[in-house]
Amino acid sequence: MRVCRGDRGGSRAGALALLLGMALLAAACGGNGTSPGASGTGTSGSTGGSTQKGGVYRTAIEDFGFTGAFDPTGEYLGNAWGLYSEMLIRTLVTFKHVEGVAGDEIVPDLATNTGDISSDGLTYTFHLKPGLKWGPPLDRAITTKDIAFAFQRIDSSALVAQYGFYYDGTIEGMNGAVDKKASDISISGIETPDDSTIVFHLQQATGDFLYRLALPAAGPMPPEVAGCFDKAGDYGRDVVSSGPYMIKGADQIDISPCKSIRPMSGFDPTKSLKLVRNPNYDPATDSPDVRANWIDGFEANVDSNTDDIFNKIETGELDGSWTSQPPAQVLQKYATDSSLKPMFHSDPGDRTWYITMNFLVPPFDDIHVRKAVNFVINKQALQKAWGGPLRGQIATHTIPPTVLPGFPSDYDPYKTPNEAGDVNAAKNEMKQSRYDSNHDGVCDSSVCKNVLFVNRTTPPFVNMTPTIQENLALIGIQVKARELDPGTAYTTIQTVKNLVPIAANAGWGKDYADPGTFAVLWDSSGINCEGQINYPEVGMSEAQAKKCGVLPEWQAASRADGGSLPNVDSKFDQCNAKIGQDRRACWIAFDQNLMENVVPWVPYLWANSFTIVGKTVTHYEFDQFPGVISFCHIAVNNKISASTL
C-alpha cells in the first residue's frame, strides 16, 4: 500500500470506485486462495516460553517513512496501517490481524455485525456495540457521528486523503475532494439517525465495500480534536485512540480550545513512537481472536544504522525488528544457524518491488528505452542485494502471483539468461528509439546524461544502486543517484512537478485481497499533484498536467507518443466489472498488456516479509492485512514496564 493524495482525479475517481467494487466476491473473501498463507509457508506461533500479558515490544526502524505524517486520513504506508488497525484505530469492521487467508477475513469491530445490506446492495446499515469509548484526552462514547466525520475529512481536499478514490464515486455525495474544511462538509450518502446507527447509501453496488470500511481512514475521528487540524498531516501527532493502545502522553493533552493542543509526548517523527494501554478501552467490546493485546507497550526508535538494529536484537536490547530488512550476512546467519532459526520469520508479503520510469521525462518517454531497461537490468544481482532467493522470487510481471493466482508461471516478456540481464536484447530495443541516432544500441542523446535516479539510503536499496548504474550505462544511460531517507524518497517521487525520471525506492503491497488494488497504480485517478501513486503518469490527461504544472513536458511526451500518453483506464474498468474466473483472467491480460505495451516498471522482486525477533518474544504473529508483524498478537517476556517509556 503506497501513496495517493491531493486532488483525486475528478470523474475518473468516480469510475474507479464504481468499477473497483464490482464483485470482489469469493476472490476477496480468500475462498479461492488469492491470499498466501494457505500453503503453510508462514511461521506464526509460539517461539518458546509461556504466553502472558505484560512487557514492552522494543524495536527500531531506520526512518518511519510515513507518507501522510501519520494522520489517518492521509497516511498510506503499510507500517502505519498496522499500528492503526491493530492498536490505535478501530473501524466498523476489521481483519483478524493474522497470517494468510484467515488474515483477509472481514469481521465486526466497532459494529455489532458486518452490516445489514439491502437486497440491491446500495444501502449498508451498522449499529455500534455498547461500551465503546474514546481514549484520553477524551472521556466520552464513540458515536456514529465520529465515523461520519472521518468521511468528511476524506472529502476535504486540504487533508489530502491519499486513498480517497475508494470512497469517491461510491458513496452518494462523495465525487471528489472539495475545497472546504471537514466541519463544513455534508455528505448526502451518510446518515446517522442516532449515536449508535450509521447508514451508507451507495451510488452503485460495490462488492468490496466492507474492505474499504476496514481501512484506517474510515475509522472514527473526534471532531473536537481531529477537527482542529485543517492541514494535511497535522493531526498525526495527536491521534486520539479508539483502540487498545494510545500514544503515550495522550492523557496530558488539553483540547479546549484547539489552540491549546500540543503534540503528544510519545511521538516524535524524527526520534521515536511510544504506545501504552488505553485505559478507556473495554476488551469486552472486542475479540481476543482479533486483538489479543498481550503487550503493555510498544516502543520504536529511529536508528539509521541497519546493522545496529540487528545487533541490538541479538544482544537483547531490542525485542525484534519491525520492517527493517536484515543485511545479507544477518539473513544467512539466522536462516542457517539452528539455534537462531526459531527467531527468524519469513511471511508472504503480497508485495512487488520495482524500478519506475517516468513517461514525461526523456529518454523514458520512449517505449523502446523502457523495454531496453527491462532487458538490461540484472535482476539476479538485485535479488542478491536483498539477500538472495531466500528473500523472494524474481518478479517477471507487476502483480504478484500470491495476489493473482493462475498467472502462467512461465510468463517472462523480458527473459534473460539466469535473469542476469541481456545487453544485446537491450541494445536491439535501444536501436529502435529516437535517442539512438546511429542505431548502435547505445543512447547518444544528451537526455541520457546525468539522469536523476532516486533511491533510499538504507540496505538493501543502497546495495542495488551500483548494479543499476552499471547496467544502465551499458545502453548509454548515465544516472546520477540521489539516495534519500525512505520518507523523503517517497514524497520526492509522489510530487508530479519534481519530474523524477527513474527511481527504485518504491514497492507496492495490496490494500486488500484483490488484484485491483495493484492495478489501481496505473489508473489515471492515481495521478495527483502531491502524493500520487501513478509515478510513471500512465494515462495523464492534459488537464491533470496543467494543474500539476507539467503541461510542457506532457505536450512533448504526448507528441512523441502519437498524441497522448499510454492509457489503461478502459482496461482497468473492464476488469473491475467482471467477477470470478473472468475477473482473474482479465487481470492477467491486464498485467500482460502493461508489461508489453505500456512498460511503466521493471518489476524485480516478489518479496517475502522477514522479521527477526529476540529470545524475549514468546509468541509471534504476522498480519496479512498490512503485511507486517502483528503487534496486537505479539507476546514478550522482558519484564519491562510501560511506565518506564
Describe this structure in words.
The protein is of the alpha+beta class and 645 residues long. α1 (11-20) packs parallel to α17 (569-576), α10 (379-386) packs antiparallel against α12 and α17 (569-576) runs antiparallel to α18. The two termini are 30 Å apart. Mean pLDDT is 90; it is low at 1-42.
What distinguishing features does this structure have?
single chain, 645 residues, alpha+beta, 7-stranded mixed sheet, 5-stranded mixed sheet, 18 helices, 23 strands, 16% strand
Task: Please describe the topology of this protein.
Layout: H1 11-20, H2 25-29, E1 45-46, E2 56-61, H3 78-88, E3 93-94, E4 107-108, E5 116-117, E6 123-127, H4 144-154, E7 190-194, E8 197-201, H5 209-213, H6 223-226, E9 245-247, E10 267-268, E11 272-277, E12 297-302, H7 306-315, H8 328-336, E13 344-357, H9 367-376, H10 379-386, E14 392-394, H11 423-430, E15 451-456, H12 461-473, E16 479-484, H13 486-494, E17 502-503, E18 507-509, H14 516-519, H15 542-547, H16 551-560, H17 569-576, H18 580-598, E19 601-612, E20 617-620, E21 622-623, E22 628-629, E23 635-636
Parallel strand pairs: 2-12, 15-16, 15-17
Antiparallel strand pairs: 1-20, 3-4, 5-6, 6-8, 7-8, 9-11, 10-11, 11-12, 13-17, 13-18, 13-19, 14-19, 20-23, 21-22
